[in-house]
Each structure stands twice: as structure tokens, then as C-alpha cells.
Amino acid sequence: MMQTIRGFRDILPKHISLWQRVEKEAIRLFEAFGFKEIRIPILEKTQLFARSIGEVTDIVEKEMYTFADRKGDKLTLRPEATASIVRSYIQHKMYATDPIRKFYMIGPMFRRERPQKGRYRQFYQIDAEILGVESAYVDSQLIFLLNELFKRLGLTGLSAHINSLGCPECRPSFQEALLGFIESKKDKLCKNCIRRMDKNPLRILDCKVTDCKDALADAPATLDHLCPACEDHFNTVKKTLEKQKVDFIVDKSLVRGLDYYTRTAWEIQTTTLGAQSAVAGGGRYDGLVKELGGPQTPAIGFAIGFDRLVEVMEQLNEIPVEKSLDLFIVSLGDAAMEKGYHWSCELNQLGIRTEMDFRGKSMKALMKRANKLSAQYVLIAGENELMENTIILRDMNTKEQVSLALETLVPELIKIFKK
Ligand code: HAM
Fold it and tell me: Does the beta carbon of 129 lie inside 6 Å of ligand 1?
């Protein structure tokens, strides 16, 4: 039997209504906040992700699906959306006509991580980015937006962890303090951390090995090394969120797993998904547009883990309801089958959920199928009725039956279903 590959999965129709509900609510909110949808390719040059996410990160070092195409170009299945959106902003010179752009996108991402609950190799993100605005108000606005979305979806028990990672101005003093600290703990760190010491010491703070975590519990924090401008920025974010009554926790140890971040960074965490606690993550990346060849442009964004969000909703007993059918046409005999076919197409065109069965089954079998599909009404078209130019409509809840005239059938049905 053919099966999906490890970490890849089908999302079956019985689960889809929850996905669609989230998607609709997110799009409605994005549009209200002035975001525009962007669709980006699933495949990009490897170099794009290596340069943005950072060569010395878990994603780039060991999680990307990278391969050479027939010409030998190195390509990668996108592990995230930010890099591609920035590439698109630069490639289409969007900054020249209007440097301020707000994008959202929803789609699959690929990371070759060890699969477990809440962690897949193909997973989905709902991503939002604002380019061209430096103000701390957009930082709080994005966290406010996330909070509002989760509220609308009925989610409780989530907490926003926020931190500031500083800027190139404050990094050197922080790095110096960090390196000094790491040096004193060197014998307790894993090989990977030792290797990263010179190349990317901030990443050591993100190590998942328990011994490393213990050894680094008191490591210096970026928050204690902020320059006055970053300090001001972070204070405004906090003050604004307080005013808006958005709960948050300042989490000095939050460093995120991607290298492009500057200043505000955050994660929305849940306690209900075991180790995979982050339902969404985001932050500022004021240096990335320039790094990838565009003009200096401040930017900020977040991505929601769509799969995880749905899992949290399912835990809250948000059982997806399958949409029931409006009408099932029971057509007995060839003439009724032909008529039924035309009615069903016409009703479908009008947005009335109508089904019929083309297998020429008996009345009993067709009624059974109508029940299986939870049809609200059944239209019974038999040879005799057609000869009399009438048709029976049965209400499956009350079991009441009425006889309708053929020539006014569709308008009568519209009256019932479009009430
Ligand atoms: P990230 O923290 O790597 O950030 O991913 C965002 C969210 O995607 C995570 O919080 C998690 O919910 C979900 N996620 C990540 N990996 C997996 C996985 N293997 N399986 C299921 N869900 C997963 C980013 O990707 C940044 N691009 C976010 C961003 C946008 N920052 C600025 N703009």
C-alpha cells in the first residue's frame, strides 16, 4: 500500500471545516487591518534561505529540503515565508512606488524535523509581514492582531512571550558578555554549541539539549544590553499593549530560531501541545531587506503554525461540524434521472447543496443514502409523479411531505432554501 512520506499528512475533509474557519477569520482580520494577499513560490534558490535565516541555524544546517535541479542549481522547498516575501519586495522594486507594504500569505512550509505531535515536515503557516515602518506601534499592532484572532477563534490559555533582541548598535556589548559567560561554561556544553561559539553565539541560547539549557540558565540577556533607542522602542511596545489590555510576559530567554531578528521578538505559547508549545512566532527584522540587496527598510512580521492552532482548537472540543446537505434527489427510472440531473445542476448553480445518485438504485437504497448524507429534504421523482407533472418533497426532520408542481419546482425550492 502506498503511504504518505514520514512527517507529511493528508488533511481529510472531516477536519477541513476547522481549517476553513480559521482561514476565513484570519483573512477577514487581515483585510480589515489593510494587509494584501501575496502568493510566493514553494521552491526558491537555497541561497535565499541560507542568507536570511542564517547559515548557522538548525533550519539551514539540518532541516531544509534541498536538492540540485537538472542544471545543478541548488533549490530548497521553502521552510518559511519571510525570506521569499522580502525577495519579492526587492525583485519587484515595491519600495520605489510605496515603501510601506503589508502582506499576508497562507500555505505549506517544509522542514525536515523529527515528526511528533504538533511537528510535521510539511506544515502550514499563516504569515503576515509589514515592510517600511519603524514605529513601535506596528509591533504592538501585530501582537494585538494575533490576540484578536485567537480571541475570535475562542482560544484561551495562550500567552504572549515578548523580548527585545536589540540592534547592531547594542549587539557587540551583548555578544562580548555572552561569549565571556559561555567560555566559563564550556565544559558543560554540547559539541554543537561549542562549534557555534565563534560563528553564532546567540544560537547557543536556543539549544534544546537539557544540560546546555541548565548551564545557560543565568546567561546574559539581550534585554540587559539594549541601547537607549532599543530600550525606548521596547517600552513603547509594552506600554501600548498594556493600554490595549493584551496580556504578555517579558521573556528574557526568548531568542527565536532565525538569525534575521532585531528588536522586538515574540512567541504565542500554549501549555497543551507538549513540547511544541509555540503556536505563533514573529519579530522585527530591520536589517533583512538591505542584507538581501534592497534599500534600508525596517520590517516586522509573524507566522502562525496553522496545524498547531487547529490542534489546540480540537483540544478545546471544537469538533468540526460537517455541512449537511440541503436536498437529495431520489430519481426512479431513466426519465426521472435525466430531469433530476438538470434540476441538481441548476440548484447547485444557485448555491443550494443538492446531490443525487446516478447508479439506478431502488427507492430504499436511495433513501438510505439521503440519510447518510444528512439531507434536510428529499425530492422524490418517480415515473407516476412525473406523468402527473408533480413531485414529492419530503422534510426529513418532520417527515412531512408536500406535492409540488413540476413547472414551479425550482422557484418553490428557492423559496425554501434561500429563506
Ligand atoms: P518560526 O518560529 O520558525 O517563525 O515558525 C512560526 C510557527 O510555525 C511556529 O511558532 C510553529 O507554530 C510553526 N511551525 C514551525 N515549524 C513547524 C513544524 N515543523 N510543524 C508544525 N508547525 C511548525 C517563522 O517561520 C518566521 N518566518 C516568522 C516570522 C514572520 N517572523 C517575521 N515574520
Answer: yes
